[in-house]
Structure formats: C-alpha cells, structure tokens
Specification:
The complex is a heterodimer of chains A (304) and B (80).
Chain A: H1 2-15, H2 17-27, H3 32-51, H4 56-80, H5 88-96, H6 99-115, H7 117-129, E1 139-143, H8 149-157, E2 163-168, H9 171-180, E3 186-190, E4 202-208, H10 217-227, E5 228-240, H11 254-263, E6 266-275, H12 281-286, E7 291-299
Parallel strand pairs in A: 1-2, 1-4, 2-3, 4-5
Antiparallel strand pairs in A: 5-7, 6-7
Helix pairs in contact in A: 1-2, 1-4, 4-6, 6-7, 6-9
Chain B: H1 3-18, H2 39-53, H3 59-64, H4 68-79
Helix pairs in contact in B: 1-2, 1-4
The chains are: A alpha/beta (304), B mainly alpha (80).
Chain lengths: 304, 80
C-alpha cells in the first residue's frame, strides 16, 4: 500500500509542486503507527473507489480541487479577516445541497486525513484516548459523521454491545460513511441534530470539526449537553483560523474555544492543539495559521 | 514603475515572508529554486504583494504563475 501513498505524492508533486513541499515535510514526521493506519485505510478506500467505478487519480483530483478552494478562501481570509460565508443557508446552497461539490469535497477531506499531519495527529489522539472511556460507553453518537473514519475507529475500539448512531445532514456523507462501514450496530440518520429529540441520552458523543460549520456553536453545545448522559463524555474538534468553503464560525484562537465549551456547561478532561503547518509559534500567530483543537469534556459539576 | 523596480519590491516581500535576507530573485526564479517557497508562504506572499502594490489578483492569476517574472507581469498589468 506504500505504493498508493507514493503514487499520490508523485502525482501531487507533478501537478502542484508548491503544495507538494508541505506534504513532504509531513512525511518526515510520520511513524510506524501512521504506516499501519494509512495502509489499512488506503486498502479500504481503494476498494470503495473501485466499487464506485472511480480511480485513485479521481481522488487525487478531488483533493487538489479542495486545496484550490482552501487556498482561495485563505487568501480572502487574509485580505478581510473573515470567512467568506456567514450563514448556514449560504453554505448549504454552496456546498451541502450540491452533490457534485460534496462529492469532491468529501473525497478531498478523506485524502487529507492521511496527508495532513494535524489531521493524523488528532485521529491518533482520539484512538489513544477513547479506550479510557470504554467501560462507561454503552451508547455512542457521532454528529456530522462526514466520511466515517472516526466512526470506524470507534467501532473497532468500543465494546461489541455498544449501540452506535451516526447523524449527518448530507446524503453524500451518509452514503460514503455507509460504504466505509457496513455494520448492523450503527444506525445512520440523515437529519439535523436539532431534530433528534426522542429523549434518548448518549454516553459518548463525537463532534469532529462541526462547530465551525454552524452559525451558533454555543447553541449546538447546549443541545449536545442535553443529549449527553450525566456522566457522559463529549469528544470534539474544531479549528481556529481555518477558512474553507463551508466554514461559518471563526474562532480566532484556542482560548475562544475553551471559553465557549465552559459557557456551555462542560469541563475539560484532556485537550490537544495541533498546528496545521510546521512553523514556529511566532510565525503561526503572524500568519494566522490554523490550529486544530480537540478535547474530551464532561458536564461540569454544579457547585452550590 | 518598471519591471526591475517591481522585482526589487517583490524581492523585499519574499525576504520578509521567508525570513531570508540572502534571497535574490530574478524573473526566472521559480518555486523549485527557493526551498521555502511552499503553499503556505505562497499565499502569504500573494497577500503581502497585493498590500504592497494596492492591487488584487484573481484566483486564475495566482494559479497560473510559474516564475517570479509571470507574477511581475500580473503586477505590471495592474499598475500601468
């Protein structure tokens, strides 16, 4: 499978040599654990592409299209200090309701999971930390399941009796996640999380890179607080300064995220921040480099 | 502003962004010749050059440059 990765790097270098330099810096960082995970992932992914009559070249083109989008959004962000979209309706019309956009965007994001260092680092953090919550997790919910990679890891780690639910508002995401993970333990729901209101509580909720996609992340965190059992745990990730075609809510720094989570009634059990580029902290601040923040949080104890 | 004056200003922007005082650009210089000219720095350079010359590039222009000279042609067409 090393072949697939080499093929990807070579093609990207030929088409977009400037971007290829970033990827090459990542290679030096990746360890044996990465090789194992990436190997298993690409075997599965190539099979899915084949079933859809698609090729690895198609996936690479999707990735490069996503990179072009990110670059033009970043330039606009550096010009204005804002993301280009500010409402859900805007990004819905622009991305989620357009299957052709969602299609390349999802494949681009899947590829980034193993091409971008910070995406791999966050997945690694999740895989290493989730086992600590295994005994207390009888019900698991992922909101915004996307391509399903985190869900597939949760399925591997959690007890066989755990019931898993995956919610997403995009048909493309649900279809893609289902093709990655076909398991009876998972109930896929194509709906808005705010419509999930049957009184069910979950022991563990995962919310990977969703907060930046909503107009009011505090409201979403309140909803999650309601959905979580009393001793339940939320794992969430969200980036600072990360312009993209479907990002709405801008976190300027990690402190803003931490403050929001506390305002929603959570306390942080553990947390990690990963820079999206290999630069010094000074340069990161000067250039407004994205930081991917992730944390395991619990409901804060009410003190009287 | 002629091309050599534009090149001189662009060179200063590159020095600032790449933090490399020794950098000497020519019109033929490409990303292959400058190790730190990667995707991150490219975007920062684009925005810094825009600010410096008070111009706006289109997405197509940004994607089309292969050399510093091509960037200078874009700048020159907007200034004159």
């Amino acid at each position: 499978m090393e072949q697939a990765i080499n093929y990807i790097y070579n093609k990207i270098e030929a088409v977009n040599p400037i971007h290829s330099k970033k990827l090459k810096k990542n290679i030096a960082f990746f360890d044996e654990r990465y090789d194992e995970l990436a190997d298993a992932f690409f075997k599965k992914y190539l099979h899915i592409l084949q079933l859809q009559n698609k090729t690895l070249d198609y996936a690479i083109d999707c990735y490069l299209q996503m990179i072009a989008d990110v670059n033009s959004e970043t330039i606009e962000f550096l010009r204005t200090g804002k993301y280009t979209s500010s409402t859900f309706d805007e990004v819905n019309n622009r991305v989620y309701a357009r299957p052709e956009t969602m299609e390349y965007y999802m494949h681009g994001l899947i590829m980034s999971q193993f091409l971008w260092r910070h995406h791999y680092q966050m997945l690694d953090y999740f895989i290493n930390t989730l086992p600590g919550y295994l005994n207390k997790t009888k019900s698991y919910l992922e909101i915004g399941v996307g391509h399903g990679l985190y869900l597939s890891k949760a399925l591997e780690i959690l007890d066989d009796k755990t019931i898993l639910t995956a919610v997403d508002i995009s048909t493309t995401s649900i279809t893609l996640a289902k093709s990655f993970i076909n398991d009876d333990r998972i109930a896929y729901k194509l709906e808005n999380i705010y419509d999930l209101d049957n009184g069910e509580k979950f022991d563990f909720i995962t919310l990977g890179e969703v907060l930046e996609h909503v107009e009011n992340p505090l409201q979403l965190l309140f909803k999650i607080h309601d959905l979580l059992s009393d001793d339940g745990v939320l794992f969430f990730t969200t980036p600072t300064n990360a312009p993209a075609i479907d990002h709405i809510y801008l976190f300027n720094n990690v402190s803003e995220i931490q403050a929001l989570v506390k305002a929603a009634g959570f306390e942080i059990e553990s947390e990690k921040s990963f820079l999206s580029e290999e630069v010094s902290p000074e340069k990161a601040e000067k250039f407004k480099i994205a930081i991917l923040y992730g944390a395991f949080v619990k409901k804060a104890k009410i003190t009287q | 502003m002629n091309r050599s004056e534009i090149l001189k200003t662009v060179n200063e922007v590159f020095i600032d962004i790449l933090d490399d005082e020794s950098l000497v650009l020519t019109e033929e210089t490409s990303a292959n010749d400058v190790e730190d000219w990667d995707s991150l720095n490219h975007i920062q350079i684009v925005v810094a050059v825009e600010k410096q010359f008070k111009i706006r590039f289109t997405s197509q222009e940004i994607l089309s440059w292969k050399t510093v000279g091509e960037m200078i042609s874009s700048i020159s067409s907007k200034l004159n």
